[in-house]
Write a structure and sequence with these properties.
- Helix content is 80%, strand content 0%.
- With 211 residues, it is an all-alpha fold.
- The protein is globular.
């Protein structure tokens, strides 16, 4: 459980880093109205403040002289203890996991770049365009996690972002569809592997019969 909590926190940190990088790229490469630039700066500041708050929460700031912790702080303390117990024993592994998560985002940017290149044909995409599309994908994945496979959400968001990046909206929708097919393909492979290896179910059945 502690390793899973650590992995989730490290991945969340990598997502925040990817989104922040995407916002910086947008501000530096896309001509935007002043209001949009102000919004981007505010979002970056909010990410920074949120990171500081989470860091302080993980360090523990409750004074025992104030009495018992509220229930929500007890939960935070429990997570913090699990994370510190695991990370304290394997400090180097945290950086390796973070590096792997960043590599995952880099490969996703490469996927976007190659897909847009095949879709656009003669009009080759730029690296900033691929970075921004991937940053948007990370935001949509987090914001619409409750939508199964984000049906329709990816297509609408990518199609709406494309004109801002001087890309044909149809190419943005095609990019979202290609990535959706990829997700469905690997989900199907995972289900097949689960169905083909019911080892845990067999072990549970044998244990029940033995008892």
């Amino acid at each position: 459980m502690s390793s899973l909590a650590v992995e989730n926190l490290v991945y969340a940190a990598s997502v925040i880093a990817m989104v922040a990088f995407g916002l910086v790229v947008v501000a530096a490469t896309v001509p935007l109205p002043r209001v949009w630039l102000t919004t981007i700066v505010a979002a970056l500041m909010a990410m920074g403040v949120g990171g500081v708050v989470v860091f302080r929460a993980m360090r523990g700031t409750w004074d025992s002289r104030r009495g018992p912790r509220p229930r929500w702080r007890e939960r935070v303390a429990a997570v913090r203890e699990e994370v510190l117990r695991f990370s304290g024993g394997y400090p180097r592994r945290l950086w390796r996991v973070f590096a792997l998560d960043l590599a995952f985002h880099a490969l996703a940017v490469l996927e976007v770049f190659l897909t847009l290149r095949w879709v656009l044909g003669d009009r080759s995409p730029t690296l900033p365009q691929a970075i921004v599309f991937e940053a948007l994908n990370r935001v949509i994945t987090v914001a619409f996690k409750f939508v199964p496979f984000r049906v329709g959400v990816d297509e609408v968001s990518a199609g709406a972002l494309a004109p801002l990046l001087a890309v044909n909206p149809a190419a943005g929708v095609a990019l979202a569809v290609v990535r959706k097919v990829r997700n469905l393909f690997w989900a199907a492979i995972g289900l097949i592997l689960v169905a083909a290896h019911p080892a845990e179910a067999d072990a549970a059945t044998k244990a029940t019969k033995t008892i």
